[in-house]
Amino acid sequence: MKNFTLLFSALLFITSCNQNLEKKSPKKDSIIKHVDPFIGTGGHGHTYPGATVPFGMLQVSPVNGKSSWDWCSGYHYSDSIAVGFSHLSLSGTGIGDLADILFMPVNKTVDITNTPQSRDSLSYKSTYSHNNEKATPGYYQVFLEDHDINVELTTSLRTAYHKYTFKPDDTQTVVVNLGFAINWDKATETSINIEDKYTISGYRYSTGWARNQKVFFVAKFSKPITKQTLVSDKETIENNVVTGTQTATQLFFKADDNNELLAKVALSSVSIDNAKDNLEADGFNFETVKKQAESTWETALSKIEVDTEIDSLKTIFYTAMYHAQLAPVTFSDKNGQFRKENDSVETASNYTAYSTLSLWDTFRAEHPLLTLIAPDKVSDITNTMLAYYETKQILPVWTLYGNETNTMTGYHSIPVIVEAYLKGIRGFDAEKAYDAMKTTMMQDERGLKFYKEYGYIPYNLLDESVTITLEYAYDDWCVAQMAKALGKTEDYNYFSKRSEAYKFLFDNESGFMRGKSENGKSWNTPFDPKYSNHREHTDYTEGNAWQHSWFVPHNVENFIELHGSNDIFTDRLEQLFTESSEITGSNTSADISGLIGQYAHGNEPSHHIAYMFNHADKPWRTQYWSRYILDTQYNTTPNGLSGNEDCGQMSAWYALSSIGLYPMNPASTEYEIGSPIFDKASINISEGKSFTIEAEHVSSENIYIQSATLNGNPFNQSFISHKTILEGGTLHFIMGNTPNKSWGINKNSKN
């Protein structure tokens, strides 16, 4: 009895210890469960729901087969027809392309000799329902109703995995169509090779937004191919290899007791051999790859962890973090090689090359976010841009599959490079980078000839003259900061002077930036600040004077002086948000969306504006308007983005603004402070080091900062430096429902 009592006591002690251990080490909540990849697939978000990994080479996703604007990613939530599953997708762009190497499982013999210009007469398209469709980070599933096939997709960095589950006794086939023209591209040459009973390979050359796109592929199947039909330019070819402008194949597999057919696919911009090298050698363990993708996403998303009792806010935040890590995409092969637009093959030595560089959008918040959560990617992206620079001795504008598209204005690879260097990110040749920036800004293309001659771009010599001038002025300021850091005093003075180009275009009487003629005396008339014309016969890019008159992020204090006073400046800022939302003109840009007054959150030129109140001694107005934007421009539905996602920019704005920070001038290495929405947000800098932002009493009403401390010391400024964040610590806010108009206007201290 005594021994039993001792044994019972020991068991109680062990149980108590285990319970205490459980209390001390609770199981960590999964982050990926908060991500909804369908957010942004409706409305004008232009995102895709398919499977990828952070910055992955492949984006394997369903394709609806329409070329309308809202189908830029290949998919739109309003649709219910699938024509296949592609391996390259664009996230949130305003122009369509990619959707290359289409696979479509079907359960019957179909006619593939017909390659129509629309999906209507495709014999193998299928309907599907959102009720039987699922997407999570690294995984996508849909049931094809016309073929009774369940499709599942996942991927690693360079290999995509397909899993098709057929009905018992159904014919098991897969159509591979390389000729179908969707998303505004056109196949110029394609080829398919049945290499053996398990393997096919080939290539697709096309022209579209990427003018010289070359995609090579290899695919292996889990079952032997028992029969195939091969077509070249609408003719059936009795051979194992076909080449033509439009090629396709239908592959047949044995319908045995195993209703599952698996495939794995790898691509390359260089060669079929490189695609084979990219293809993972291990078997077809779909679930293992899926779990690895989920684990990779869990790590990537945990770089910033937020605490709140409001689940919808977690969904919006972590989906934003997800979208912000879809692009840029890995472009170099396993051996480091990648193709440039002139068909030269570059080898990335000691770095990974990237493409899908939407720099006009992403320099604003996406790249600053990466300096916090993925600094290793930043140096690789810089090395990639320097490689693209060698093609024409001009830095990238908008690079798609190694092609310079010259889409949008400015040379915003420059602020990305300067921000990286000034934030202490190395891993690239700073002198080489500086030479590239200087050479780019001293050449004559894209209006720079006029800019250098007049100090601004006259409206009668080039469309979008105001936007281009303002953006070149900012790029110049960034070059000047790099020159200063490298001890190039003469260049610093030269580019600093050029960065004042905004002064030429400021009309003090109206408070707007306006088009000026080459004589330097007359404005472009008649003038209507609400007028917008899309890309032609206009002084502004995808917007109007209301939206584009605020782009002086590098010298806000002087900009305020031009207006006359803080009060005049902030009165005009307030009017931006409260003016009627009417846009005049007969050819207005669809990009003007997410309107709050004339503020257009759905397009990037507006993204920094709410934070300018901080520089006019009214930070409580920044707190008000940044919170208003957070509350009204994002939600958890497929329409949850108020404009094009633009390769992460819309989401990066949310991810940073929601924790209370925003890089109004990215290359300044400072973040403006807005209105945090989470009880607590921790930026995980490195193992064992984090920077935590706490917002005590925060709620939908308590949006105003009452007081703050940094590591226990009083903190009374509306900005914080990147350096301070990297040191780790805690920034603690007390929030309330009325403004504290004395907080955040002390400019004497800097952290």
UniProtKB/TrEMBL annotation:
The keyword Hydrolase applies. It comes from the Bacteria. It holds the Pfam family Glyco_hydro_92. Coiled coil: none annotated. InterPro entries: 6-hairpin_glycosidase_sf, GH-type_carb-bd, GH92_a_mannosidase_put, GH92_N, Glyco_hydro_92, PNGase. PROSITE patterns: PROKAR_LIPOPROTEIN. Residues 274-737 form the Glycosyl hydrolase family domain. Its cofactor is Ca(2+). Residues 34-268 form the Glycosyl hydrolase family 92 N-terminal domain. One of its GO terms (molecular function) is hydrolase activity. Keywords: Calcium, Hydrolase. Monomer. NCBIfam families: aman2_put. This is GH92 family glycosyl hydrolase. It comes from Algibacter miyuki. The lineage of its organism: Bacteria, Pseudomonadati, Bacteroidota, Flavobacteriia, Flavobacteriales.
